[in-house]
Amino acid sequence: xxxxxxxxxxxxxxxxxxxxxxxxxxxxxxxxxxxxxxxxxxxxxxxxxxxxxxxxxxxxxxxxxxxxxxxxxxxxxxxxxxxxxxxxxxxxxxxxxxxxxxxxxxxxxxxxxxxxxxxxxxxxxxxxxxxxxxxxxxxxxxxxxxxxxxxxxxxxxxxxxxxxxxxxxxxxxxxxxxxxxxxxxxxxxxxxxxxxxxxxxxxxxxxxxxxxxxxxxxxxxxxxxxxxxxxxxxxxxxxxxxxxxxxxxxxxxxxxxxxxxxxxxxxxxxxxxxxxxxxxxxxxxxxxxxxxxxxxxxxxxxxxxxxxxxxxxxxxxxxxxxxxxxxxxxxxxxxxxxxxxxxxxxxxxxxxxxxxxxx
Length: 359
Hints:
The protein is an alpha/beta fold and about 350 residues long. The protein has helices at about 5-10, 15-35, 40-50, 65-80, 95, 135, 140-145, 180-185, 200-210, 225-240, 245-255, 270-280, 285-300, 310-320, 330, 335-350, and strands at about 55-60, 80-85, 100-105, 110-115, 125, 150, 155, 165-170, 190, 280, 325. The strands form 4 sheets. It has a 5-stranded parallel beta sheet with strand order 2-5-8-1-9. Strands 3-4 form a two-stranded antiparallel sheet. A two-stranded antiparallel ribbon has the order 6-7.
């Protein structure tokens, strides 16, 4: 008798047809978004990896590079409700989560009624999040971490899926409020939007200055979008991770910590000197969780049910570059978190061939 699907899952076996369906659907979403977003294939891929892992994304890029259009296109392709919140210095927490209003009762008298804010949507664009005050920025913390908000002692659960993509501008830093480390750690990935190439810029100008325009279409039927996304998120967690790959992930995380125990082994003692010189604080355990889940999604995209070392190396940068706090010496030597992560990966790489993605 053939084992049932439940028995296969109990043994850690994931059906290959589900893996192929996951890959097909995710590539279909990428293709639909690419009809309006020129280039940035890797950026779109990373955003979708974070989305199907249940995480949130922080994007940094110059103005006018299509960050808002990208999130709108994602919401249209998936068929979920989209809301944009423009963060400004005078924005208050109630402008995000909602507030209590006084209304008339049916039988007479007054009562408080909760008016929902724009946070009650599936896909949220927090535009220029570093322009709001820390008090307003913190209004996103509970929503991002717990999937709920609390107003006047009452808890409101946010609808699934709930995905926040925040942007911040690397220029015009006067009058901005840098995100505290605790909130930075809430983001699954931090991504940079590259400037378009010569050919990409020509294509953008042709598409945006003519009479023709393309409307992003749904990839999933309206009545099946939510169930399909939840199925894909469940499948991500069923991908297998060997003990060797898990050990490698743990070593990478610990190597970002000054005086990490990974350096007790002789081959990595010179790496300890390098990281101690530039790092104040390393990645939290959330960084390890992000590495594992993102690697699992990368494996599914490659049509596999187990994580490889290559999968881990592809997502090290987006998962950890915002979780490493550098010191003044790093700033003086113009050393970036990406350079440090590249050095760590190069030193700790296992004895196997792999494809390293530039951080």
